[in-house]
Design brief:
With 448 residues, the chain is mainly α. 63% of the residues lie in helices and 0% in strands. It is built from 17 helices and no strands. The radius of gyration is 61 Å and the shape is elongated. The protein starts with 18 loop residues before the first helix and ends in a 13-residue tail after the last helix. The mean pLDDT is 83.
């Protein structure tokens, strides 16, 4: 190769340039130290590995990639522990709707419980194992159908909406209900076999958490809550994953609407069938549940006890009613006798009060008479005076009751002088006027 040399002069310094003269040192260099440099780092190690094993760059990269794949497979071994089915490996990628996406990724044991992290790890391992470049490097078949199945499974299971649609029709995640014979082998067999069935069905519930089947120690309230929940089960399950593909072309709109109606009708039919299936499943479980039989037996015993208690109570009430009636009749008779005696006593008392009132009235009339009708002693009372005084006395007695009459008679008893008798009458008149029983001036003589 010919070498051409070109001479280029340095550029001319600008005028007034005086850097060498103006330079001022602001520090000094440290004392140099002698150090040994060693070849290290990943690139040196790769170089040393290639020299030692006498490999080219491409050979070393291929071997390192194989070792990396093996290491990844060993690290992710816990996520995929199931062998690969030869029939599954030969699946046609076009029939992706019919494939078991969880089995394709090696997650058959996890299924709807598989986390996003587990799905990503499983996909990574499957890709490293079945990538077309890897298979070509190992001399295997270059058919990439199963790799496409892996990619489709990963696409479905990492999309929440699509995964929910697939989980809705994933029959492989269902647990078959036990036979009546198997569930009745032992007291614990019923709960052991039926429990996983409802745990599997619970994934379709709109309401979470779902009541558990429990065991033979569950209370009546817990058992009733369980069966009430499942008899009124609200399922989010849909079947659009199994829809017939709707044509995308815009020219045949009638065919598109026909397919959509067909899919909707098919979904409704499958939903109805699934509801009937679940109802039958709950009925079968209820029929074999010994707890229900025990609760019904206890209920019947409770009803019998209530009936006997009710009959005993009715008998006791009847006896008490009979005794109460007899007691009432006895009291009624005693009351009649007492009323007759009281009536007789009342009659006597009434007569006595009447006689006492007559006597007291005579005392009141006699008091004014003895006091010369409230005139000075020695003065003769004219007829008019007598009538006025006795009229006042009659009017006064009409305003008071027997007790006041007796009290007034007691005050007037033994008094003879007109001043004393008149003073008592004045006080009584004022008292009645204060009570409003008499009007002022109504008593012409007694109040003056």
């Amino acid at each position: 190769m010919a070498i051409t040399q070109i001479s280029l002069p340095l550029p001319v310094l600008p005028e007034g340039w005086s850097a060498p003269n103006d330079f001022k040192a602001i520090g000094t260099l440290s004392t140099p130290n002698q150090r040994n440099l060693e070849p290290v780092g990943p690139h040196f190690l790769a170089h040393a590995r290639r020299k030692r094993h006498k490999r080219t760059f491409s050979e070393d990269e291929r071997i390192q990639a194989q070792e990396h794949v093996k290491k990844v497979e060993d690290d992710d071994g816990d996520h995929i522990s199931e062998p690969e089915d030869p029939l599954m490996l030969g699946r046609d990628a076009k029939d992706w709707k019919g494939q078991d996406h969880y089995a394709v990724l090696g997650l058959s044991k996890h299924r709807y419980r598989a986390t996003d992290s587990q799905i990503k790890h499983a996909h990574r391992k499957k890709v490293l194992r079945h990538h077309p470049d890897k298979r070509a490097a190992t001399g295997s078949s270059e058919d990439d159908s199963f790799f496409k199945c892996i990619q489709k499974a990963f696409e479905i299971l990492t999309d929440p909406a699509k995964r929910r649609q697939y989980d809705s029709i994933d029959e492989n995640a269902n647990v078959d209900p036990p036979s009546k014979k198997a569930a009745s082998k032992s007291p614990s067999a019923f709960y052991k076999l039926w429990g996983p069935v409802f745990e599997s069905e619970a994934r379709f519930s709109k309401i979470q958490p779902v009541p558990l089947l429990g065991n033979d120690k569950s209370t009546k309230e817990e058992v009733e809550e369980f069966y009430n929940f499942w008899f009124n089960f609200q399922s989010w399950r849909s079947f659009e994953y199994q829809d017939e593909d709707v044509p995308d072309d815009n020219e045949n709109r009638d065919q598109k609407r026909h397919v959509e109606r067909k899919n909707n009708n098919a979904r409704k039919k499958k939903k109805t069938e699934d509801t009937a299936r679940l109802r039958q499943l709950v009925d079968d479980c209820l029929a074999g549940d010994e707890r229900i039989k025990k609760f019904r037996k206890e209920a019947r015993a409770g009803k019998d006890k209530k009936r006997l208690d009710r009959e005993a109570e009715e008998k006791r009430v009847a006896e008490e009613a009979k005794k109460a009636k007899e007691e009432q009749e006895r009291l009624l008779k005693e009351k009649e006798v007492a009323e007759k005696a009281e009536k007789a006593e009342g009659k006597k008392a009434k007569e006595a009060a009447k006689n006492a009132a007559k006597k007291n009235k005579r005392v009141l009339k006699g008091s004014v008479k003895d006091a010369n009708y409230l005139l000075p002693e020695g003065e003769s009372a004219p007829a008019k005076r007598i009538d006025e005084v006795l009229g006042d006395v009659e009017a006064f007695m009409a305003k008071i009751d027997n007790e006041e009459l007796a009290s007034l008679a007691g005050k007037l008893g033994g008094l003879k002088l007109a001043e004393e008798v008149g003073g008592v009458w004045k006080e009584e008149v004022k008292r009645l006027e204060g009570q409003g029983k008499l009007k002022a001036g109504e008593m012409k003589i007694l109040g003056s």
